[in-house]
Amino acid sequence: MNLQRPPAEIRYADELATLRATDTDPRPPGWALSLAAARRFIVGDNGISRKFVGDPSLVDRALVTLATSRGLMLVGEPGTAKSLLSELIAAAVSGESTLTVQGGAATTEDQIKYSWNYALLVAEGPTPRSLVPAPMLRGMAEGKLVRFEEITRCPLEVQDCMLSLLSERVLAIPELTGADGMVFAQAGFNVIATANTRDRGVNEMSAALKRRFNFETVFPIPDFDTELGLVEQEAARLLEQSGVEIAPRRDVLEVLVTAFRELRGDGGQVDRLSTVMSTAEAVSVAHAVGLRGWYLRGDAGTAADIVECLAGTAAKDNADDLARLRRYLEQQAPRRHGQQWQALHAARHLLPG
Q1: If we measure between CA atoms, which residue out of 166, 210, 163, 159 comes closest to residue 185?
Q2: What does the alpha-carbon distance between residue 149 and residue 86 come to, in Å, rounded to a whole number?
Q3: The pTM is what?
Q4: What is the DSSP letter of 48?
Q5: Cα 265 to the chain's mean position, in Å?
Q6: CA-CA distance, 153 to 172, in Å (whole number)?
Q7: For residue 260, how many C-alpha atoms fall within 13 Å in the half-sphere facing its CB?
Q8: SS3 (DSSP) at 172
Q9: According to DSSP H, which parts of the chain are helical?
Q10: Which of 97, 129, 182, 194 would be a feasible disulfide site paired with 91, CB 3.0-4.6 Å?
Q11: For residues 39 and 66, what is the distance between their CA atoms, to the nearest angstrom?
Q12: 3-state secondary structure of 89
């Protein structure tokens, strides 16, 4: 099966199996790994690959929180790998990262808790057989972590359906009678939610719901070399999956990462764009640059391709951002030395408008 993006428990199945076989530390009830082994899976050590580039103490605090009765809320700028971190934690703790609720304006309580198979509901009435469990019900019944992505994009009344689940650890199904009408959380159940700092005003969480979470901020990668290495690694992986037979050029990626860091305001010498110039977006542009070079010309891509690929990422629908990007290419790029910076400046006319 050629999956575009397998979940973490499939991508790293061998490492998870190794950790489970050698893990002798005490495990919290319902966990597949100890805290030490889960941390090792995420930050890497002694033959286990590093998967999250960030503060290891953040990972420690996140794991400790999930071993308690409080949920974990990961907040930060878009593209700071909050979703990746929640996926890795769920794969390590529960062996499954796909119990996920994707928050949005159209998210309903049914998509969080449960719904019904209406053909069976009409034929048999409300029975356990006609019940269709949603991620939260499955997580509670099976004792697994549930991921709630972009929780602040949900309407407030939908968010607040989580209150009793997180405090009482029970989900009531009033349509069913007897023991079937109550689902009690098994050991290992908890919730990892994520929210972008730019979206926190969309549907601000109630104070009652906030009290049920510990908040951790995921910051952008501060170090240039670390960010460059991550972009190079991820872009090479994506290009290989896309059938590209040569690795991305490091000098091109250096130009790309430098431009992204400056355009998002690092250093304060360039007008910051209003759009998100995250590491994840840089990986996406690096992937597109490699695809353009390979499939159009048979090479690894150049800095001129960066200009072609940047417009849709940096400008989007904001004319002011497009003007700021044009000024950057006209004024900042010529001040840098190197063939790829010269190519970036020379290609500035490729920007639309």
Answers
A1: 166
A2: 9
A3: 0.89
A4: B
A5: 22
A6: 25
A7: 30
A8: strand
A9: 8-11, 13-22, 35-43, 56-66, 82-94, 109-112, 118-124, 135-142, 156-159, 163-167, 207-210, 224-241, 250-263, 279-292, 303-310, 319-327, 339-346
A10: 97
A11: 13
A12: helix
Q: Residue 127: how many CB atoms within 10 A of its CB?
A: 16
Helices (H), 3-80: 8-11, 13-22, 35-43, 56-66
Of residues 70, 64, 87, 219, the one with CA closest to residue 148: 87
Cβ atoms 148, 191 nearer than 8 A: yes
Instruction: Show contacts of 10-18: CB within 8 Å, 24+ apart.
Output: 12/41, 12/49, 12/51, 12/91, 15/41, 15/48, 15/49, 16/41, 16/91, 16/92, 16/95, 18/47, 18/48
Place of tokens 């979703």: 83
Backbone angles phi, psi at 311, to 5 degrees: -55, -45
Amino acid symbol at 30? G
Judged by DSSP in three states, 6 sits in coil
Instruction: Report d(CA 159, CA 208) in Å as an integer.
Output: 11
Kindly give the confidence (pLDDT) of every residue in the chain, 353 residues in length, as a single tens digit, with 9 standing for 90 and above. 578 889 999 999 999 999 999 999 999 999 999 999 999 999 998 899 999 988 899 999 999 999 998 999 999 988 889 999 999 999 999 999 999 999 998 999 999 999 999 999 999 999 999 999 999 999 999 999 999 999 999 999 999 999 989 999 999 999 998 899 999 999 999 999 999 887 655 678 899 999 999 999 998 888 899 999 999 999 999 999 999 999 999 999 999 999 999 888 766 667 788 777 888 889 999 999 999 999 999 999 999 999 988 877 766 667 788 888 888 889 888 888 889 999 999 988 888 76
Structure tokens at 213: 């979470």
Q: 250-263 and 303-310 are packed helices; what angle lies between their axes, rounded to 10 degrees?
A: 40
Name the phi and psi angles at 2, rounded to 5.
Answer: -100, 85
